């Protein structure tokens, strides 16, 4: 583990120092006004970013801030950004541009931007030159420094933008505070970064090289969560199958799953994401042997054409992928499979695309996340020949969407009259008297019930099947 620098309580006291400094300022204000300072954090992107935002919220709570949903009421506005697709940039600059008026009306408001986009130098350059109302900019590798950056900005007499973005990626920070969205389920990072360099992808540039947290730290965190009424754990990493590659001993991801499976009070274990090239027989067997491991697997295929997969540097063929799917279905016939697919990758022919449609029909995914290829600066695919027109990409996207939706609807029908165990998340967004939650396969299920069920696992009989949701009654 030589290149990994672990930052924990012993060499981490700096953060507490700055948290206290900001808290003292906020406490003084509170004594004068009776109002706590408010923050809003707008999060884009994947679970990694969501989890980073939970850590930022934890730090802010310790600094005496309260969360608000109302941009107008916030004293601190944070945008946690995602760089996976290009169109997000236009939207981001639009959103940030719109904050100019808020800042003009109230110059004391602090505006911060962080996340994957900040790891791209051209974004930081644009922000610092044209969006001077942004006050703090930090990246993905130094989130733990946020209290220091905030204190630095607050105490500046001549307000200038505080910019701190690192390209050093060897850190693992342990023990960050966290405010979670749900009391009963939690994300746990098991590794950071990615070494795969799929030719379309920006993540290895924004999140750095792969590094794994020690099993002791992970198990300790899960134990603590289990003692705090958490029932469901989702283990996070860009490629969980290469967990432990930087360890000197042979402690693998399936071994970690086995150890987590033994922890009392944890009832469900999920993980994402698995790279198909690395999914091992050992991991596949875990679905048969570990009772807490949920019957759901996200296995991004990206394309059904081996030619395109080669250009993508995915390092498996469509045949390899199908073989793994067969193995998985043999071990866990009831598993819900989900995937990610990119259409319109440079060089993708109509024939290649048809192979994707064919694969989707063969696998019968419960659901698929579909994307039109988007060129990212600095990636290998940016320089490839054969870029596809937007029109063709849209056409392929719509055809794929239709096929995938038909399959999802068909898979949903299989649930009719079945009894599902639902971990209740809260009231449904559409109807305040209806509860919604997820079964082990991660399907959203609605039923009528009262608040006392939130956070509980209840049995629900499916009575009504819709294309994208399932309704039932508690039994
Ligand atoms: N580490 C995960 C996924 C990370 S990004 C994995 O490897 O599976 C999530 C998804 O975004 C990817 O699976 C891919 O389908 C999509 N994606 C990534 N880069 C993209 C790009 N440049 N254009 C379109 N979709 C992209
Ligand atoms: Fe991106 Fe590929 Fe790494 Fe996933 S495995 S994060 S798609 S480079
Ligand atoms: Fe986006 Fe960064 Fe996740 S680019 S998808 S937020 S790792």
Automatic annotation (TrEMBL):
**NCBIfam families for this protein:** miaB-methiolase, MiaB/RimO family radical SAM methylthiotransferase
Record's HAMAP family?
tRNA_metthiotr_MiaB (MF_01864)
Self-association or partners: how does it assemble? Answer: Monomer.
Which EC numbers characterise this protein's activity in its record?
2.8.4.3
- Any keyword tRNA processing? yes
Protein name per UniProt: tRNA-2-methylthio-N(6)-dimethylallyladenosine synthase
So where does [4Fe-4S] cluster 2 get bound? Answer: 194, 198, 201
Describe its function.
Catalyzes the methylthiolation of N6-(dimethylallyl)adenosine (i(6)A), leading to the formation of 2-methylthio-N6-(dimethylallyl)adenosine (ms(2)i(6)A) at position 37 in tRNAs that read codons beginning with uridine.
Q: What class of enzyme is it?
A: transferase
Q: Name the reaction it catalyses.
A: N(6)-dimethylallyladenosine(37) in tRNA + (sulfur carrier)-SH + AH2 + 2 S-adenosyl-L-methionine = 2-methylsulfanyl-N(6)-dimethylallyladenosine(37) in tRNA + (sulfur carrier)-H + 5'-deoxyadenosine + L-methionine + A + S-adenosyl-L-homocysteine + 2 H(+)
Q: Which cofactor does it need?
A: [4Fe-4S] cluster
Entry's localization field: Cytoplasm
One term of GO molecular function? 4 iron, 4 sulfur cluster binding
Family from the record: Belongs to the methylthiotransferase family. MiaB subfamily.
Every copy of the MTTase N-terminal domain together lies at: 37-155
Which residues are in the TRAM domain?
413-475
Q: PANTHER family from the entry?
A: CDK5 REGULATORY SUBUNIT-ASSOCIATED PROTEIN 1, MITOCHONDRIAL TRNA METHYLTHIOTRANSFERASE CDK5RAP1
Per UniProt, the cofactor note for this protein states: Binds 2 [4Fe-4S] clusters. One cluster is coordinated with 3 cysteines and an exchangeable S-adenosyl-L-methionine.
Database matches in Pfam families = Radical_SAM, TRAM, UPF0004
Question: Which gene is annotated as encoding this protein in its UniProt record?
Answer: miaB
